[in-house]
Amino acid sequence: MSPARAPSAGWAGTATAAPGLLAFTGAIGSAEPHAHAAVQVLLVLDGEVTLTDRHGHRCRTEAAIIPAGARHGLRAAPGAHGRLTSDPGRRPERAP
Q1: Across the beta sheet with 21-27, what order do the strands follow?
Q2: Under a CB-based contact definition with an 8 Å cutoff, are residues 93 and 28 in contact?
Q3: Got the DSSP string for 16-73?
Q4: pLDDT tops 60 at residue 33
Q5: pTM of this prediction?
Q6: CA distances (Å), origin 10, targets 14, 47, 77
Q7: What is the mean pLDDT of the chain?
Q8: Where is this region: Disordered (predicted)?
Q9: The CATH number of 22-86 is which of 3.30.2090.10, 2.60.120.10, 3.90.25.10, 3.30.450.20?
Q10: Is 48 helix (H, G, I), strand (E, B) or coil?
Q11: pLDDT confidence of 62, banded at 50, 70, 90?
């Protein structure tokens, strides 16, 4: 069993969970590379946020749609605020 990691600093805000929706609004912190089971939408309302893709490429962003399963990391400058939403109740649809 691996040791538990401490949560990344900087995250503070309001989270809302309902069937088919998970949303966070507030101060954005940083997160080590990870992936989600559902699509995630990021909207930066204030400050600077940089996303890192699975290849290590970095890009400052104001908004992003992160596909389900896409490995990514996040670095936020102090004072960054935004909104993240996800749909944990839906499974990605497959193309016919």
Answers
A1: 12-18, 21-27, 81-86, 40-46, 63-66
A2: no
A3: EEETTEEEEEEE---EEEE--SS-EEEEEEES-EEEEETT--EEEESEEEE-TT--EE
A4: yes
A5: 0.77
A6: 13, 13, 9
A7: 84
A8: 74-96
A9: 2.60.120.10
A10: coil
A11: very high
- Statement: residue 95 has pLDDT above 80: no
**Which single residue is written with the structure tokens 């204030």?**
46
Number of Cβ atoms within 10 Å of the Cβ of 23: 16
Distance of CA 51 to the CA centre of its chain: 9
* pLDDT given for residue 36 in this prediction: 87
Domain extents in the chain = 22-86
> Span 65-82, mean pLDDT?
94
